[in-house]
Amino acid sequence: MPVGVDRTARIYARAILSLIREHGFTQRMVARGLGVSEAYLSRLLRDPSKLEAFLAKLGEHRGLIDLHRAAKDAAFRKKLQV
């Protein structure tokens, strides 16, 4: 995996973990945004390296971009939570 892709996946993983731990997003909300089951996301969250590998495979997925934006922008985060 190229270094740029690895770094991007790590950034997306941190954004997802931040949304779940600090901003009140549920695993169900994140799973819906990524188009995976809640059980699959739960397995990925237990192993950060698997989560990063999965996110690297997704590339520039629209759901990833939205989740990354939500981690930084409070107004956008509220819009996604509703």
TrEMBL record:
InterPro entries, sorted: Cro/C1-type_HTH, Lambda_DNA-bd_dom_sf
Q: Gene3D superfamilies, from UniProt?
A: lambda repressor-like DNA-binding domains
Which molecular function terms from Gene Ontology are attached?
DNA binding
Give a single Pfam family match. HTH_3
Q: Which residues form the HTH cro/C1-type domain?
A: 21-50
What protein does this entry describe? Helix-turn-helix domain-containing protein
Which species is listed as the source?
Thermus tengchongensis
